[in-house]
Amino acid sequence: MSIVKYTVIGGGINGLAVARQLLIDHPDAEVTLFEKESSVAQHQTSHNSGVVHAGLYYAKGSLKAKLCRRGVHLVKEYCEANDLPYDQCGKLVVALTEVEVERLKRLYQIALDNEVPDVCMLYGDEIKKVEPNCIGIAALHSPTTAIVSYEAIAKQIAKDILEKGGKIQLSAEVKELKNNADGIQIIMKDGSVYPETFNYAVSCAGLQSDRLAKNSGDEANPKIVPFFGQYFVLDDQFTNDVKGLIYPVPDPKYPFLGVHFTKRIDGKMTIGPNAFLSLGRENYTGKNFNFKDITDYLVYPGFWRFSFRNIPAAIRESKTVLSQQTFIDECVKYVPSLSKMTVKPATRGIRAQAMNQDGSLVDDFVIRKDGNITHIRNAPSPGATSSMAIAEYIVREVMQTVEAKATVDANDSGIEMVVQGS
Ligand SMILES: Cc1cc2nc3c(=O)[nH]c(=O)nc-3n(C[C@H](O)[C@H](O)[C@H](O)COP(=O)(O)OP(=O)(O)OC[C@H]3O[C@@H](n4cnc5c(N)ncnc54)[C@H](O)[C@@H]3O)c2cc1C
To answer: Which segments does the entry list as coiled coil (predicted)?
Structure first.
């Protein structure tokens, strides 16, 4: 029997987790991963908040709800098995107004629906038993929310892949996956053709996922629009005022969560990330711009529809971009003892956020199978938490469907499985 050959594009945590899962489930197969950078985990995987989300926000029935809970279990197990730090520091989502208390109660219900362990509502001074310096009318407490280093996890997964006989090709940018009679051909960025063909491919290209998908014959939509998130690190003398994670109650008027306190696995305390349009998909300094990336969204009708609908959000976020003090003030509302805190900027993260043509942001994970090629088209937060569950789901469910074209495209209201073709 001939050996089955799989290829995975993208050495972020999702691509690595998929390659590992393929080697676990198909030990006799050949697995080759292509990564365009000179080492793995250089993009979203190493530029995020490092939170293992417990599942507080995701509507029942969504892929996020399903894969986040399973992902927590798998990440925890993996960290324990590989001696990687996993700090269950807990999280508070804090309401400062009565309107926010009502929203918080809805979040509590979602958390119960998702069977998040040990969540409870706290009122008034009860909050101080968890975070002595935090104020609020009410808070949702999730004691099992944790922090990790996704970069360290990804690098460990890369070692596992090599140990299991998989190949990782670094500095290897793929332009196109071409399905032909001999199998899937890999066309590299310089136009050369990789000498081997593959039976199946999974594309996990993060910030470049829409481009690789389109070049490979998949639909042009949704499009990736990059939103950066700035972080600041508190100077050491202020670190201990907060013990874990303190988040605002999300406002449905704004597409992102709002700046929050996040403890890092190295013990530092950060505030952030805000969310603002990035001048490049991989522009981490914010000091230059990428003409192609900017033109890409400026000519996208969805971008203009999104912009007109989100002017209040843009104004709110631009204040935190333009003024470090406004950024700090947003957080001090929750911890007044930090009103004099001093901070230093940390590297930004850039979200690969998929946007529909109608200007709506795609909320749920989108995984699309086009013949023998599967594309991750949207994997925003909690994409790192869910990575190992996303991998299981792709390898054991999506890749097992026999139809020519399947869309696993879930939104707030649930999962939709559209199957076209024979
Ligand atoms: C600011 C921010 C905060 C976040 N906080 C959290 C959090 O606390 N918890 C959480 O669970 N999630 C969080 N996330 C989301 C999480 O980081 C992502 O869901 C996750 O990292 C996505 O992993 P990925 O492998 O899909 O993408 P990436 O990590 O971006 O990896 C994609 C890889 O593909 C490679 N690539 C791209 N194109 C090609 C090509 N053509 N050929 C070869 N290689 C290619 C890239 O170089 C890259 O290595 C956050 C994200 C951001 C930006």
So the answer is: none
Phi-psi region of 267 (alpha: psi -120 to 50; beta: other; left: phi over 0): left
Mean pLDDT value of segment 41-50: 97
Q: Where residue 256 sits, what CATH number does that domain have?
A: 3.30.9.10
SS3 per-residue string spanning 65-96: HHHHHHHHHHHHHHHHHCCCCCECCCEEEEEC
| Predicted local confidence at residue 419, as pLDDT | 25
Q: Which CATH number belongs to the domain containing residue 413 in this structure?
A: 3.50.50.60
Question: What is the 8-class DSSP label of residue 285?
Answer: S
pLDDT tens figures, 64-122: 999 999 999 999 999 999 999 999 999 999 999 999 999 999 999 999 999 999 999 99
Last residue of a domain, one of 353, 373, 394: 353
Is 50 exceeded by the pLDDT of residue 404?
Answer: no
Coil, helix or strand at residue 93:
strand
Assign 42 a pLDDT band (cuts: 50, 70, 90): very high
Residues 142, 231: one domain?
yes
In a domain, 83, yes or no: no
Centre of ligand 1 from the C-alpha of residue 414, in Å: 24
212 lies in which domain range? 5-46+151-222+362-420
Q: Are residues 238 and 381 in the same domain?
A: no
Q: Stretch 394-417: mean pLDDT, rounded?
A: 61
Strand order, beta sheet including 167-169 = 167-169, 30-34, 5-9, 200-203, 373-378, 366-370, 405-409, 417-420
Residue 192 Cα to ligand 1 middle (Å): 26
Give yes or no: residues 111 and 200 share one domain: no
Structure tokens belonging to residue 314: 């843009």
Distance, CA of 400 to CA of 201 (rounded, Å): 13
170 has a pLDDT exceeding 90: yes
Same domain, 284 and 408: no
Tokens of residue 287, six digits: 């000091």
Answer whether 399 contacts ligand 1 (Cβ < 6 A).
no
Total number of domains constituting the chain: 2
| 282 CB near ligand 1 (under 6 Å) | no
Q: Ligand 1 in contact with 209 (CB < 6 A)?
A: no
Cα torsion 396, 402, 405, 411: sign: negative
Do 339 and 258 have their domain in common? yes
Give the ligand 1 atom nearest the CA of 382: 11
Same-domain check for residues 180 and 163:
yes
223-234 and 269-272 as β-strands: parallel, antiparallel, unpaired? antiparallel
- The pLDDT-based confidence of 24 (bands split at 50, 70, 90) is very high
